[in-house]
Amino acid sequence: MRRVVVTGLGAVSALGGSVDEFRKALEEGRSGIAPIEGFDVGQLRFKTGAQVRGFAADEFFDRKSCELLDRF
User: Fold this and answer.
1) Nearest to 32 by CA among 40, 43, 22, 42
2) I want to staple 11 with a disulfide (CB 3.0 to 4.6 A). Which of 6, 22, 28, 32 is the partner?
3) Helix or strand or coil: residue 64?
4) Cα–Cα distance between 22 and 11 in angstroms, integer?
């Protein structure tokens, strides 16, 4: 039998940016689906999605990495 050690938890999702926010939203039965913000959805069939709000990639990655990363 193999052993597994959990050394930490993390969550970045449409329900919250931390484990505590995520867990609370799950317990309350909240949905992460909401109107899409950040770009024009006028030409799209859908207007809602599970968007991570309030995430600043530059807090976690250097400038060069941020230029290479995409929003999804």
Assistant:
1) 22
2) 22
3) helix
4) 7
Residue 30 has which token pair? 């909240």
The residues facing 13 across adjacent strands are: 16
36-49 tens-digit pLDDT: 988 899 999 999 99
Q: Which two tokens stand for residue 1?
A: 């039998």
Picking from 50, 46, 49, 39, the residue whose alpha carbon sits closest to that of residue 13 is 50
Buried b (16+ CB within 10 A) or exposed e, 44-67: eeeeeeebeeeeeeeeeeeeeeee
| Token pair for 25 | 């939203």
